[in-house]
């Protein structure tokens, strides 16, 4: 199953470092791609700042990447500090309108930067809102994003996650069927954490355009490589069968949520890369 792997790492893996130092570290670790987290109020770069002048922001960041021989593997847009804030399927029409404006500006940012992959969140369930209404709004807004990105030559993906309207493979598959052209930024950890089997998640691999890799186990959204129960051998086999051409992001995070601040991210990033390389060489 020998296959070539293309590794990126998230800048939000190392949130305590200034962004320039994060990029220096990725270069030192000989990682070629960077996943840029553009999260309102909780990342190195906020959407509200970038959207004042998306092209100028992209030119500045592009020079910083180029000087370190780094490539933008993914731009991950989150318009709220937490998934329920300014969610894609927010019941408020004004918020959804602002989200569309943010997405349009982020497309300009991506095009100027030379990034061809954009990730967003699918939406959440809202109190006092019918589940089907929440789902339908999510479908409509995601379909709009897919088409806007397609016109600009960008692949748009959503990340199904704990706490979202897509917290299991079955609902994710139904959502993909409802939104032609949609792809996934796939992280098995969100499913394995809930006690789901690896086999139940494999059906999503053909829909992945980006992949988040980190250790995970039942009850542990993020674990050490030693404690990991995600079947990365099967994942790599499935990706190869799907002719996956995208990046594999080594996406350990450091955030006070679901215990995701209890790992040594440098060590675990290196250990996971080595494990994936060994599996790919078999």
Question: Could you characterize the architecture of this molecule?
Answer:
There is one protein chain. 40% of the residues lie in helices and 17% in strands. By secondary structure, it is α/β, with parallel strands linked by helices. The protein has one domain (7-280): Divalent-metal-dependent TIM barrel enzymes (TIM Barrel). Strands 1-2-3-4-5-6-7-10 form an eight-stranded parallel beta barrel. It has a two-stranded antiparallel ribbon with strand order 8-9. The chain is globular and about 50 Å long. The mean pLDDT is 96.
Summarize this entry quickly:
The protein is α/β, with parallel strands linked by helices and 282 residues long.
pLDDT average, as an integer?
A: 96
**Which fold name fills CATH's third level, the topology?**
TIM Barrel
How many extended strands? 10
Number of helices: 10
Radius of gyration: 18 Å
- Spatial strand arrangement across the major sheet: 1-2-3-4-5-6-7-10
Query: What top-tier CATH class fits best?
Result: Alpha Beta
Largest sheet: 8 strands, parallel, barrel
Per CATH, which architecture? Answer: Alpha-Beta Barrel
Instruction: Write down the secondary-structure element order.
Output: EHEHHEHEHEHEHHEEEHEH
General form: globular
Provide the structure class: alpha/beta
Number of domain modules: 1
| Proportion of residues in β-strands | 15-25%
- For the termini, the CA-CA separation is 5 Å
The proportion of residues forming helix, as a percent range, comes to: 40-55%
């Amino acid at each position: 199953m020998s296959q070539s792997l293309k590794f990126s790492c998230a800048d939000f893996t190392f949130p305590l470092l200034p962004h320039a130092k994060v990029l220096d570290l990725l270069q030192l670790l000989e990682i070629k791609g960077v996943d840029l987290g553009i999260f309102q109020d909780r990342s190195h770069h906020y959407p509200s700042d970038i959207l004042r002048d998306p092209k100028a922001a992209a030119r500045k960041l592009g020079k910083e990447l180029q000087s370190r021989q780094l490539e933008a593997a993914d731009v991950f847009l989150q318009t709220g500090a937490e998934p329920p804030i300014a969610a894609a399927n927010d019941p408020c029409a004004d918020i959804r309108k602002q989200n569309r404006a943010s997405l349009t500006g982020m497309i300009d940012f991506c095009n100027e930067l030379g990034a061809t992959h954009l990730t967003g969140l699918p939406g959440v369930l809202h109190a006092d809102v019918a589940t089907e209404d929440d789902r339908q709004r999510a479908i409509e807004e995601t379909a709009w994003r897919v088409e806007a990105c397609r016109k600009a030559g960008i692949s748009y993906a959503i990340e199904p996650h704990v706490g979202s309207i897509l917290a299991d493979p079955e609902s994710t598959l139904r959502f993909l069927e409802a939104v032609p052209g949609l792809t996934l930024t796939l992280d098995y950890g969100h499913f394995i954490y809930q006690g789901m089997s690896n086999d139940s998640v494999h059906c999503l691999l053909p829909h992945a355009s980006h992949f988040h890799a980190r250790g995970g186990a039942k009850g542990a959204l993020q674990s050490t490589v030693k404690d990991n129960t995600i079947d990365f051998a099967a994942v790599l086999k499935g990706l190869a069968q799907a002719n996956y051409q995208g990046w594999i992001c080594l996406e350990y995070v450091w955030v006070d949520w679901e215990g995701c601040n209890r790992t040594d991210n440098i060590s675990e990033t290196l250990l996971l890369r080595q494990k994936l390389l060994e599996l790919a060489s078999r």
